Amino acid sequence: MNRSVIRTLLARDLGMIRRSRALMLPMLFLPTLLLVILPAAIGLAARERSLDVDRFIEMLPGGLADPVLAHPPDERLIILVLGYMVAPLFLIVPLMVSSVLAADTFAGEKERKTLETLLHLPVSDRDLYVAKLLSTFIPSTAISWLGFTVFCIVSNIVCWPVMGRIFLPTGTWMIVILWLAPAVAALGLGVMVRVSIRVENTQEAQQLGGAVVLPFVVIAVGQTTGLLLAGPVVTMAVGSVVWLIAALLNIRGMQLYRRSSMAARL
After folding, report:
1. By C-alpha distance, which of 22, 14, 60 is closest to 203?
2. pLDDT, mean over the chain
3. By three-state DSSP, how is residue 88 classified?
4. Which residues contact 61 (CB under 8 A, 6 or more apart)?
5. Which of 4, 12, 261, 227 is nearest to 135 (CA)?
6. How far apart are CA 214 and CA 212, in angstroms?
């Protein structure tokens, strides 16, 4: 691969994303809602001690409740919600951001009438495809990592009167953010880039891609809290499986991508 070509194409796409309100607003709204407002609200609720979560905790199967019950009663709401239950949302963020950006990779070029120029550049199909993947993967991963940093800061500050210590991040949380979240982003773009190639505009790409990505969202919501409770080994194993599937999708997409076939449909 020609790295200088990829860097040039990547800089072009990242600059376009930065200048596009239609792309920036969805990317920033959900993380702000999730990573600032939610922890602040949970911390304030825990200060009031108006919610009794012990009954809910006792309903958890087997030993899953033990990590929460190990803490004092006034800390359990914070540990349960901010330590475990919001975890699925941290996988939804990279998945949704990568889906929004990937839908714009080729379909957006068609809408802006810039695809023909892009297809006639003296670069290989592989370099162009890799640059498009990176222009989606890098922002979605960066937003996830930056968002988690903000989440930890806000959570520790707001919850300090109850916790009296820094309780985030934990080791398992770091595995979820640094290992599993990028894998989910790669999985989402592996699906959405191929959708973007085949449709005519970003709206169609988002609608069709949403139907494809929705099952992954459901799985993330249903399983991620259990991963944190199950421990780092299980989380690492699940992340490895997601990375494998994402790699297969993206490698296969790169093998199938041909600019000549796209140019013929213009």
Report:
1. 22
2. 79
3. helix
4. none
5. 12
6. 6
Are 105 and 132 spatial neighbours (Cβ–Cβ below 8 Å)? yes
Residues in the chain: 266
Are the C-beta atoms of 170 and 232 separated by less than 8 Å? no
State the CB neighbour count (10 A cutoff) for residue 50: 8
- CA 17 and chain centroid, separation: 17
Helix (H) or strand (E) holding 145: helix 125-158
Burial 128-163 (b: 16+ CB within 10 A, else e): bbbbbbbbbbbbbbebbeebbebbbebbbebbeebb
Report the predicted TM-score, pTM, of the whole model to 2 decimal places: 0.83
Q: How does DSSP classify residue 84?
A: I
**Interval 224-257: pLDDT, tens:** 666 777 778 888 988 899 899 899 988 888 887 7
- Boundaries of domain holding 238: 3-264
Number of domains composing the chain: 1
Residue 57 has pLDDT above 80, yes or no: no
C-alpha 169/C-alpha 148 separation (Å) is 9
